[in-house]
Amino acid sequence: MGDHYPRGDARSRANQFKGFTSCVLRSEFPHLKSRMPMLWSSWFFVASAGAVSADTVEKYSNTQWERPWTKKQQKEGADRAPGV
């Protein structure tokens, strides 16, 4: 059927990155060859940030593990009077 992916697509880039980093890591840490025959899985995730600034992407990346409901609970707890 032929290759459905254009040259330079995300799939190719992910595979290039995995291949390069695998080679570098295995040369630096030879014990990985015997303990981990496959360093990376075949899966990868790609998402588009759209037309947003680098600062916005960085802020999201730095806070993506924060839980909004935790902040809300902390704020509600601070608003209450002691002993209530």
Q: Which features would summarize this protein structure in a list?
A:
84 residues; Transposase_17_sf; Transposase_17; mainly alpha; DNA binding; 4 helices; extended
Count of individual domains: 1
Q: Any low-confidence stretches, pLDDT <50, length ≥5? A: none
- Please indicate the percent range of residues in DSSP E strands (runs of 2 or more): under 5%
Q: What are the secondary-structure elements, in order, as H or E?
A: HHHH
Classify the helix fraction into a percent range.
40-55%
Please specify the SSE layout and strand pairing:
Blueprint: H1 10-28, H2 32-35, H3 54-63, H4 68-79
Structure, briefly:
The protein is an all-alpha fold.
Describe the structure.
Residues 73-84 have a biased composition (Basic and acidic residues). One of its GO terms (molecular function) is transposase activity. This is Putative transposase. The chain is mainly α. The chain has one domain. The protein is built from 4 helices and no strands. The mean pLDDT is 77.
